Amino acid sequence: MSELFVSGRFVDFIRALMLVEGVLLWRHHRRTGRGIAPGDLLPVLVSGAGLLVALRCALTGTWWGWIALSLLAALVAHLIDLGRRQWSRPGGSAPA
Q1: What is the CA radius of gyration of the chain?
Q2: Residue at 28 is within a domain
Q3: 95 in a structural domain
Q4: Which has the higher per-residue pLDDT, 94 or 5?
Q5: Sign of the torsion angle spanned by Cα atoms 5, 7, 11, 16
């Protein structure tokens, strides 16, 4: 079991599940018009994927720069998600 974590394969499995989840949610929205819109879902998935890539890099001893870039990508996606949520709320406005 420890080999799954040390090699990073466990993280790859979780990322694959995230991809399946994203596809299923996209298909559900496309078919029914309900659920999370793809534009709202994408930043959440990218943010999570960035954190998982950083975790995999840390577990496998990858160069620290890749960890930092993965975390930066996760942060940017998270901030995009927060901005979209703020502006889509009733009464929400752009920051002054």
Answers
A1: 16
A2: yes
A3: no
A4: 5
A5: negative
The CA distance from 56 to 6, in Å, is 9
Is residue 13 in some structural domain? yes
State residue 54's pLDDT score: 98
Tokens found for residue 91: 């009464």
List the structure tokens of 43.
């930043």
Q: Which domain holds residue 80?
A: 2-88
Q: Is the pLDDT of residue 95 over 80?
A: no
Tokens 């018009």 identify what position?
Answer: 33
Residue with tokens 């999370």: 36
Q: 94: which DSSP letter? A: -
Query: Is residue 75 in a domain?
Result: yes
Give the total number of structural domains in the chain.
1
| CA–CA dist 28, 18 (Å, integer) | 15
pLDDT one-digit tens code per residue, 23-75: 999 999 999 999 999 999 999 999 999 999 999 999 999 999 999 999 999 99
